[in-house]
Structure formats: structure tokens, C-alpha cells
Amino acid sequence: MSSTANGKPQPSTSGSPGEIRIPNRATYWPVAPVDLLLGAPLVARLLLGASPLGRVLQAAALGAYLESAIQDWRARRGIRRIDFHREFGADVDQLVPMPDEVRVTEIGLLAGRLNDEFVEERLSRSAMAVEVDRHLTDYIAAITGQHVRTSVEVRSFTLAGLAFPFALGMCDMLSGDVAILKDTGPFEPHIITHEFAHRKGYWKELHAQVLAYLSLADSSDPALRQSARLERLHRNLRVVSGGEVAEFNQLVSLTKLRPELQDALRQPRAPSNGLGRRMALSTRGLYDWRLRLTGQNGISDYDAGFTNFLHTFETSAVARQKPPEIH
User: Fold this and answer.
1) In a domain, 37, yes or no
2) Residue pLDDT, tens place only, 225-237
3) What residues contact 208, with CB distance under 8 A and at least 6 apart?
């Protein structure tokens, strides 16, 4: 494994860093682009009926959305993307499973570090978005030699979130529009960074998870480091619990974390009624299918895939980059 100066990523390219700007014009709209596409036909019909003017309104909404998406697509063609296997010795289809005993040891190390360096202060969401985008942009540029500049806008609502009630954040692949759907406390820096990685052209969930973690884990800001480590602990606990909520919450109690962090980790019980349970399983199944259809491993990439990637990276003999320390 090659070393890095001061723990920073090692560039893959020579010469001075380049820069590319993705306009993300639709992220500045007062409503989410997808909401506009879904809502414009309904509003037009309610207010104008099936009139030529109503059809013009619908066409205008679609045209604005496509214009923004095409501009972003053209700009993204110039992105120099990270070769994950070359840089980290791991990728979606090249993962070494983490042994159970290693996972249990890692949980203890992370819990101890989180307790020792607990941070309660939080930036506003808008200020946090600016800060995590800077870290993510600089981390990627240190490897590729290219600063990918994008919007730092974040929404708090989108109708698309109603279709996936388990989602904490969403990114529209065409417009780059990002919404953070719930207040997740100390997890929020990592979640925003994950969605911003999508905005910068890294569409695979495992890649977004990894880039969010690595760009924050060595940050000089203790709140950002805390968020990265808490996400890693969370995903390890998910794997050990097998995704069972009751067992997961019991494991959280056994970590001896501070009450504030335990409260952030604990998961609500699954819907108790048959309809609610079926809907939850159906939406998760649909999302898992969508991930597999796009060359990913499914929802497991958030948990087992993410933690196995970090294990593979940290034990790799060929990775060009140096992983951040967790102890």
C-alpha cells in the first residue's frame, strides 16, 4: 500500500488540479423538479381543465426539467471518475467479507472513540452542506486532480420521498436535486455527503457510502468525524443484527455509548399491522431490485457492502490510498 503525506489522498494524475462545474440549475428551483413534473399536470387540469393552455404549462415544466438535466449531463461527461479498485483495492464486485470477530472488535473500537470524542454542537443544515461539500470536493480532487464543483442546495421535502418512507435522503439522478427527508442528528453530515457524492456523478450506493465516509473520517472538524464513525458503527450493528430491529436496538444498548448517540442509533419498530408491513417490504423489495438492475448488490451495499469495502481497503496490499485510522 502506498503511503500518503499527512494522511491525505495520493493523486492519480500529474499536473495542477483541474476544475469542472455542474450547473445543477434545477436544484435552485423553489420546488423539487420531480414535484413540479408530478404536480404540473394536476394543477393544470384543476385550474385550466384539458385546455391548450394546460398542455402548454405541462410542456413548459417538462422542458425546463430536461433542459437542466441535459446541461448537467454535458458537464458530467468531463468528470474524471475514481477507479475504486485501483485506488482502494476494492469495488462493488471485489470485496473481502469481514470476519465476525473483526467486526465485533471494530464495533468496540468505534464505540470507544465516539464516547471519547463526543460532540454535541451542530451547524445549520445549509452551513453543514457547504462544509461537507468542501471536504468531499477536496477529497475527490486529491485523487483525480479535478475539483468537481456542484450546487450545495438541500431540500427538506420531495413527493418522491412518500414512495420510499424508509429513505433518509434522496438525489434525483437527472437534475442532481437533493432532499434530506428527516432530522437525523449526528448522522446528517454523512447523509448529506452521501447524496452530494451522487450529485457529483457517483451513482452507485456503495461508492457514495465510501466517499462520504472517507472524506469526513479524517476531517479536522470533530462533528464530521463523529458522523462518519457513527455511520460505520451503525452499519456494523445492522450486519450483526441481521436487520432485525429488536436485536439491533439491544446491540445498541450493549455498546455503552453515550445516551445521545444511542438515541440517534435506535430504530423505530416496524409497522405492526399487516398492510403497513407489506407496504414496507414491497417498497424495500422494489428498491433492492432497482439497485441490482443497475449493477449493484442491492440494499446490502449500505451495510455489509460498505463495511466489507472498508475491511478490504484496510487489509489490501495493492491499494494506492491509505485508510483513515479509527483508533
Assistant:
1) no
2) 999 999 999 999 9
3) 194, 195, 197, 198, 202
